[in-house]
Every structure is written in structure tokens, then in C-alpha cells.
Amino acid sequence: MPRIDRRIALMALFMVSIVSTGYYLNIVNYENTLGTKNTLAVKNGVSTESTEDVLLDLSFAKGGENLSWNSIQLELNVEENTYPCMVGGMSSVAQDNGTVLSKLNADGKTFTINIDTNSEDTQYLDLHTMSVSNESSFSLSVLQTDIFLGEGRKGLAVEDGFSQTEADEGYVLDEDDEERLEWYSYDFSVHRIVPDSEVYILEDRGVMFKVQFLNYYNSDGAPRHITLLAAPLGNASIPALTDESMIQIAPCTVLENGDGIWGAEEVISLQENGISICEGECTVTVVALFEEKRIAGADSNYLLG
């Protein structure tokens, strides 16, 4: 009997080891669905003393997909300087380190917002300024995974994608500040929080916004770093898009076809916007992100002039 018991114990230990290894591999090999499989293709332009040079032409390798400008960030790095490239002509002012950081995406209307929730203190977000706020007036409060609307704010979750969600007077806002937003699911197979695909329509002080939660983890995989997209609906004017302390003329303009997307077969151009980014010979690095993930082929250096 002892020999049989030993065999059973060894078999049980072996099975536990197999299951544990599979569980560990699931976690280690987890792939976030954000980003794109597109590969960037770059063609050099010109570099002169002009302040309107077309520096680079960008496109995607064959087999790519259409990408919405509201989820794209494009920049040129020259030496130690960074130049945002925008469709809308305006870019956000660089922010100091903080618990709530926002950056205007290439469409010139949508912000990517990162909220660090590692603190035991509640973080407050004001969608009018797309920046940190306080308890007296806020659009969203965030404490780790608990997210609530501000007092008197109303909301609605819709199934449409972020790009497809537009202003509609027929929206019935059925969520209020007493209800915790059910914005994520828990994937037990990989032990991760996964944001749901719904887009939230929020009414805040007479302005309608759309918000979509993208991630609960930062680029290093650390939790409690919530990333979301946010934009006003319709033609609403908010301080984040008009206040000179938050917005500035973009040094680089994206020349594209104006339909709101970077088409899979479309060639866009990056042009200086009244400022000399390069004069004569210089090395340019293209930084391109989609949904906060690097687009393959970016971060390469290109010699102009």
C-alpha cells in the first residue's frame, strides 16, 4: 500500500505541475489586443531653410488596416527636441509628472489620458480641462478599479465603437453618480483586468463627452495605471481645446485626405508648420503609436538633407 500511495502522490504532484505551468505560461504569454499589426513605411522628403518643408511621407506596408486618427500619436524627434504632428493643427502642451496625464491625439480633438491609481487616495478627472481636478468639481472619480461619475453627472454605455459614437439627442442617460461604472471584466485565465469595449456617453455641465477605457496596465505591465480615450461630442468648446496654457500650434502638420482615418493604402506627409524642424542635413526619428502601442517600423532614424 505505501508504494501505491507514493505513486498516487507523485501522479498528483505531476498533474499540479502541468496545470501550474500552463497557468503561468498563459499569464506570461498574454497579448494585449490594443495596437495594430500595421508596419510603417517611410520615404524621405526634403530639408531646407524653409519652414514649410515636407520632411517625410508615411504609409503602411501591404496588408495593413485603416486606423482612426483619434487613437494615433505621431511625433518627430530631432536631437533632443520633440515635435508633435497633428491633423487638427493644434497640439497639447507638455505636462509635468503627475497622477493624471493627458495628451491630444493626432485628430486634434481626442485625448489619451493616463491615471495612476497606485495611491490610496481618490483621483479626480475633469473632462472640460482633461486634467486632474478636486473633490469639489469633477467628471470622474477613480480609486483603483472603482470609477464613479461626479455629482450631478449622467451617463450611458453604448455598444458603438469610439469613432462611430456621435452626438445624438435621443440618448437616455441612465447612469448617475451613485452607481459604480461596470467598465471591466476579469479574465481568470490570465489573472488580468480587461476593459469592456463599450463607450460611455457622459453629460457634464451641459457638455456631452464620449469616454472609452483602454487599459488597466502601463507599458511595463504594472497594474493600477488606467488609460482612456476622451473627447467632447459635437462642436462643444472646452478649455482643454482653447486655453493657451493647455494647447498650442502644432509644429508639424499631417497632410491627409480628411476622412478621419489613416487609410491602409493612404500616403500621408509630415510638413513643417511655420517652424524649421530641420535645416539642411539632420537626423529625424519617427515616433508612431496606435492605442498607446508602437506601430512596427517606427523609432527608426532617417537622414534628411
Q: Which helices and strands, and how do they pair?
A:
Blueprint (H helix, E strand, L loop, with lengths): L1 H27 L11 E5 L9 E7 L6 E2 L3 E7 L2 E6 L3 E3 L7 E5 L6 E6 L6 E4 L4 E2 L7 E4 L2 E4 L4 E5 L25 E4 L4 E4 L3 E6 L2 E11 L5 E10 L6 H4 L4 E3 L2 E4 L5 E2 L5 E5 L9 E9 L2 E2 L6 E4 L1
Parallel strand pairs: 5-20
Antiparallel strand pairs: 1-2, 2-22, 3-21, 4-5, 4-23, 6-19, 7-8, 8-18, 9-10, 9-11, 11-12, 13-16, 14-15, 16-17, 17-18, 20-22, 23-24, 23-25
Report on the structure:
10% of the residues lie in helices and 41% in strands. The chain is mainly beta and 305 residues long. It folds into three domains: 1-30; 40-88 and 250-304, Immunoglobulin-like; 114-239, no CATH class. Strands 1, 2, 4, 5, 20, 22, 23, 24 and 25 form a nine-stranded mixed sheet that branches. The protein has a six-stranded antiparallel sheet with strand order 7-8-18-17-16-13, with no helix packed on it. It has a four-stranded antiparallel sheet with strand order 10-9-11-12, with no helix packed on it. A hairpin with a 2-residue loop joins strand 4 (72-78) and strand 5.
In short:
The protein is mainly beta.
Number of strands: 25
Which spans of ≥5 residues are poorly predicted at pLDDT below 50? 19-30
What coarse outline follows from CA principal-axis ratios? globular
Helices, by number, come to 2
SSE run: HEEEEEEEEEEEEEEEEEEHEEEEEEE
Helix content: 10-25%
% residues in beta strands = 35-45%
Radius of gyration over C-alpha positions, nearest whole angstrom: 23 Å
| Residue-averaged pLDDT | 91
Q: Which structural class fits the helix and strand makeup?
A: mainly beta
Q: Give the distance, in angstroms, between the N- and C-terminal Cα atoms.
A: 84 Å
Q: Major sheet: size, sense and barrel closure?
A: 9 strands, mixed
Domain count, please report it. Answer: 3
